[in-house]
Design brief:
With 229 residues, the protein is of the alpha/beta class. It folds into two domains: 25-178, Glucose Oxidase, domain 1 (3-Layer(bba) Sandwich), CATH 3.50.30; 185-228, no CATH class. It has helices spanning 3-9, 12-21, 70-77, 99-108, 122-125, 183-205, 218-228, and strands spanning 28-29, 33-34, 42-53, 83-87, 112-115, 118-119, 132-134, 136-137, 146-151, 155-157, 160-162, 167-171, 174-178. Strand 12 (167-171) and strand 13 form a beta hairpin. The longest helix is centred in the last third of the chain and has 23 residues, at 183-205. The chain is elongated. The two termini are 19 Å apart.
C-alpha cells in the first residue's frame, strides 16, 4: 500500500493526532463540508489560488473574457491528481467557483477542490463524482467579493498555511494539510495507529475499561503485538 492509499484509508482525526505528535497544531481547516457525502475522501498535492477583496473598477463581468484571468488559469492548469485549494479569506458571501468549473476540474483529472469560502450550484456539484469542500453555499458570483491574484504560491486557507505541494487530505470531518516532507512518515504512522485502534474498539465492545487500554500500558502493548503476529 503506497502513501496515498494509506492516507485515503485513515481519518483526518488520526492524521491530526500524528501531526500533533510532531509538533503541528494548526493543520485542520475548520468549518468545511463536503458537498457530496458519497465522495468525501480526497488526497493530493495542493495547487493554490489566492483571492484578495474585489474592487469595482477591476472586477466586472467582462474580466472572464481574459484567458489570463487567474481563476480560469487555475482551472485549466491544475495538474492531474492535485487538489485546487483556494484562499477566499474565509469570505463566503460570494462563490469562489461554481458547477461548470467543478465539472471542468473533474474532467481534467484533478483530485478535488477546497475553499474556505462559498460555492454556487451546490446541488449540481453535490451530484458530481468529485470531492468539493466549501464553507457555505453562496449564489453571487465571485467578482462581487473576490479578486483573483495569486497562483500556486503559499496561501492561508481557513487560517491554515498551505504551500504548493503540501498533501491535502479530506473526509467527512473536513480537510487536513500535511507538510509534503512529512507525508510518507505520517501516512505510515497513521495507518499503524488505526490498526491498533481497531483492536482497542474491539476490546471496549467486549467490556474492557479504557484505563491501561487507551493509551496502552505494557500489558496491552504485548497483547496487541501477540495478536498482530
Amino acid at each position: 500500500m503506497d502513501t496515498r492509499e494509506k492516507l485515503l484509508s485513515v481519518s483526518t482525526a488520526t492524521l491530526t493526532t500524528q501531526l500533533f505528535k510532531r509538533g503541528f497544531r494548526n493543520v485542520f481547516i475548520h468549518g468545511l463540508r463536503a458537498l457530496n457525502p458519497r465522495r468525501d475522501r480526497v488526497c493530493g498535492p495542493a495547487y493554490t489560488l489566492r483571492y484578495i477583496p474585489a474592487r469595482e473598477d477591476l472586477d466586472h463581468i467582462g474580466v472572464f473574457e481574459d484567458r489570463s484571468h487567474p481563476q480560469r488559469v487555475a482551472i485549466e492548469q491544475c495538474p492531474k491528481g492535485s487538489v485546487l485549494v483556494v484562499d477566499s479569506r474565509g469570505d463566503s458571501l460570494a462563490a469562489s467557483a461554481g458547477g461548470i468549473l467543478m465539472a471542468r476540474l473533474m474532467v481534467r483529472g484533478a483530485a478535488g477542490f477546497v475553499t474556505d469560502g462559498g460555492l454556487r450550484d451546490t446541488g449540481e456539484i453535490g451530484q458530481l463524482d468529485f470531492p468539493s469542500y466549501c464553507r457555505a453555499a453562496s449564489a453571487p458570483t465571485n467578482l462581487i467579493r473576490h479578486h483573483a491574484v495569486g497562483l500556486n504560491e503559499p496561501i492561508g486557507c481557513g487560517g491554515v498555511a498551505v504551500y504548493p505541494g503540501d498533501i491535502v487530505v479530506g473526509d467527512g470531518d473536513g480537510v487536513v494539510v500535511i507538510p509534503a516532507h512529512l507525508a510518507d512518515e505520517v501516512a505510515d504512522a497513521a495507518f499503524e495507529q488505526e490498526k491498533f485502534e481497531e483492536f482497542v474498539v474491539a476490546k471496549v465492545k467486549e467490556g474492557r475499561s479504557i484505563f491501561g487500554l487507551y493509551p496502552p500500558d505494557e500489558a496491552t502493548k504485548a497483547e496487541y503485538k501477540k495478536g498482530a503476529k
